[in-house]
Amino acid sequence: MNKNVFSDLAEKFDTILKDDARIETYREDTMFRGDPDAVIRARDETDVRAAMKYCFVSKIPMTFCGSRTSMTGASIPTEGVVISTERLEGIIDIGEHQGRKTITTRTGTITAAVQKAAEEAGFYFPVAPTSRDDCRIGANVATNATGEDSFKYGPIRAYTRRLKIWLADGTEKILERAASEKPSWDRNRAGYVLDWKNPIDLFVGSEGTLGFIAEVTLDLLDRVPHYFSALAPFPTNRKALEFIVATAQSTDLKPRALELVDASALDVMRTHTTFPRLPEAAKAMVYFKQEYQDEADRDQWLGRWFSVLEKASTPDLVTAVLIADTQKDRENFRLWRHHIPSTVNERARKFWDAGGGKVGSDWWVPIPKLLEMMDFFYTHADALGLPYMAYAHVGSGHPHTNIICANASELKKADELLLTCCRKAVALGGGVAGEHGVGKIHRNLLSIQHPLSAVAKMRRWKEEYDPLFLLGRGNIFD
Ligand SMILES: Cc1cc2nc3c(=O)[nH]c(=O)nc-3n(C[C@H](O)[C@H](O)[C@H](O)COP(=O)(O)OP(=O)(O)OC[C@H]3O[C@@H](n4cnc5c(N)ncnc54)[C@H](O)[C@@H]3O)c2cc1C
Fold it and tell me: Which of 21, 301, 319, 386 has the highest Cβ tally under 10 A?
């Protein structure tokens, strides 16, 4: 690409060019290393739109990035310009409109700040990725993010009421749902939603490939719920999984989060400096959260949970269940949970130079198929002989399995296992991506999930909105 275009960009915008050491930060996310030609650190929305118009005319590929916590290389380009939203922070409006409580925010606002602003106004925004202290709300919409509490609250699509979008050439589009429209709780994050009726659903989860999300309006819930968090130890992975399957299908228990921490993930959790000592017999954990109305209601819920735990675990482990009912204690639980992916990502990063790293899964299955799927994964992972673990949103049939590979040949084998597991998950009625999208590193999974005709349909939508394939090049499509 002509070098002059980039120097020209640098004159117009706050730009980091390729020979500037600061570009290093924008070269990789947790899973992928790319090679941007330049980074535009937009000072405001006018900058973004002007930069997009410039790049469109000069046919420069554009990749939008928030905080680059993506797990798929989606915010890291292999060519062209990065447009960063890191300075586009701030809440625009919170209030009631047409009978709905909503928050309108600029795209680069950190997710935790959106939640805090909602709570300060007496409302509640429940979609909380465990990365919420780092990631940005526009990117959450672009990935259709979920979080720890997705068991009860689902993905951000379900709350996305209005988007201000700029197409590749800078044209503005306002996408909005009617006050009565209820969005779906789709599980699939592989490519675009196939049966969308409102284009807002096409843009949610489009991984920066259709347009720039400039402004987001989200539905809020009426009030901040009371809840307690619990970490319940189990003697085996199997016992923890059986408990999760039974609870997910129970009509009595109504958790807002229901997650697995398997034996190896628990070993990582135990390395957190504030994690308490657990009995040696604890070989797995179930992490759940329960909402309640008042103290009496809380005590009833605690009684109900303990009575099922007594049947499902062992007496010594039931007495070791950890409960958090204050903001500070719940936050500790969240940090211990977050310690698992952040530690694993750090460990895996050390093997990048040797061609290794982490192979992480995002497949999901319907709950009645979960035990079969997990047996399948554990049997194959044991045979592989590499360090691995499974944790996270298992109550929704959606674990994250991580295999750590020291070199390229181990990585190849783990990648093959990922493909095998994805085929199995689809055969069981599930999918290849339940949370992170496919980005660059998992776009090969699209054809496991969808027939060629469906992928061709997605490509036609992409061509309609971005005919030159300038946006998020390499994400979803080759
Ligand atoms: C430790 C850890 C825990 C995580 N936990 C969760 C979790 O619980 N749930 C979950 O869903 N994800 C989770 N993630 C993944 C990640 O945090 C989410 O995908 C998040 O939405 C990415 O936000 P970001 O600001 O880092 O975006 P980036 O990684 O910078 O970008 C992500 C995608 O959004 C696009 N994008 C960014 N801004 C815009 C915009 N303004 N317009 C259009 N496209 C845009 C990018 O092009 C890219 O395709 C986790 C990641 C880590 C590292």
Answer: 301
Output the pLDDT for position 147. 84
Write the single-letter amino acid at 458: M
Environment class of 286 (CB within 10 Å of its CB; exposed 0-12, middle 13-18, buried 19+):
buried
Tell the residue nearest (CA) to atom 14 of ligand 1. 131
Could you tell which of 33, 70, 165, 203 is best to mutate to test the pocket of ligand 1, judged by most ligand atoms within 8 Å of the CB?
Answer: 70
Helix pair angle (3-12, 45-58), 10° resolution: 160
Amino acid found at 290: Q
pLDDT, position 179: 84
Rounded Cα distance between 132 and 321, Å, is 26
Q: Which residues contact 176 (CB under 8 A, 6 or more apart)?
A: 161, 162, 163, 200
Which domains are seen in the chain, by residue range?
A: 3-86 (3.30.43.10), 91-219 (3.30.465.10), 226-347 (3.30.70.2190), 349-462 (3.30.70.2740)
| DSSP sequence for 417-458 | HHHHHHHHHHHTT-BSBSSS--TTTTGGGHHHHS-HHHHHHH
Q: Is-contact 262 390, C-beta < 8 A?
A: yes
pLDDT digits (tens, 9 = 90+) for 219-234: 999 988 999 999 999 9
The C-alpha atoms of residue 363 and residue 433 are separated, in whole angstroms, by 5
Residues with beta carbon inside 6 Å of ligand 1? 29-30, 63-71, 74-75, 85, 107, 129-131, 135-136, 138-140, 142-143, 145-147, 207-208, 212-213, 341-342, 435-436, 472, 475
> E strands along 125-199, which residues?
160-166, 172-176
Q: How far is CA 330 from CA 24, 106, 290, 444, in A?
A: 35, 29, 12, 38
Q: What is the Cα–Cα distance from 174 to 179, expressed in whole angstroms?
A: 15
- Ligand 1 pocket, mutate which of 65, 88, 391 (most atoms under 8 A from CB): 65
- Whole-model pTM: value is 0.95
Handedness of CA 254, 373, 73, 57 (dihedral sign): negative
Determine which residue's CA is closest to atom 39 belonging to ligand 1: 139
For ligand 1, the distance from its centroid to the CA atom of residue 315, given in whole angstroms, is 41
The alpha carbon of 64 and the centre of ligand 1 are apart by a number of angstroms equal to 11
Low-confidence stretches of the chain (pLDDT beneath 50): none
